[in-house]
Amino acid sequence: MKLRNVLIVVRDIERSRKYYHDLFGLETVLDNDGNMILSEGLVLQDAKIWENFLGKDIIPKNNASELYFEERDIEGFIQKLEELYPDTVYVNRLMTHSWGQRVIRFYDPDGNLIEVGTPME
Q1: Mind listing the pLDDT tens digit of every residue in the chain (121 residues)?
Q2: VOC domain spans which residues (predicted)?
Q3: Which of 2, 9, 95, 105 is the most exposed place for a label (fewest CB within 10 A)?
């Protein structure tokens, strides 16, 4: 068995496509009208489709999962994040864990939690 994709729910799929392209360089692999697959296996699902399928409300900022990215130039990434998306809501600004890894955590425009950290080499 192989994990193929991770799906997140978004309210505006085009805004989210642009967000993940601008910040992480993810490209559109398949656009299937409300279900968009990006490179690296991230899937954007339109919230209306997801709510219809589940029959339940979407709960933004539920803190039950996290997308994790690694970036060597974390200061450069933070500068890009602040320039392109100045209204970003942070969980924590740049911090250093006891094991030496530097990380930042924030929400995407739909309340999906993201962590960007320096590689652990």
Answers
A1: 999 999 999 999 999 999 999 999 999 999 998 999 999 999 999 999 999 989 999 999 999 999 999 999 999 999 999 999 999 999 999 999 999 999 999 999 999 999 999 998 7
A2: 2-119
A3: 2
pTM: 0.94
Tokens (6 digits) for 15: 């805004």
For residue 53, what is the domain's CATH number? Answer: 3.10.180.10
The residue segments making up the domain with residue 42 are 6-117
CA distance 42 to 44: 7
Q: How many domains does the chain have?
A: 1
* Calpha distance 92→32 (Å, rounded): 34
Structure tokens at 95: 């911090």
CA distance 105 to 115: 4
What does the block give as tokens for 101? 């890894």
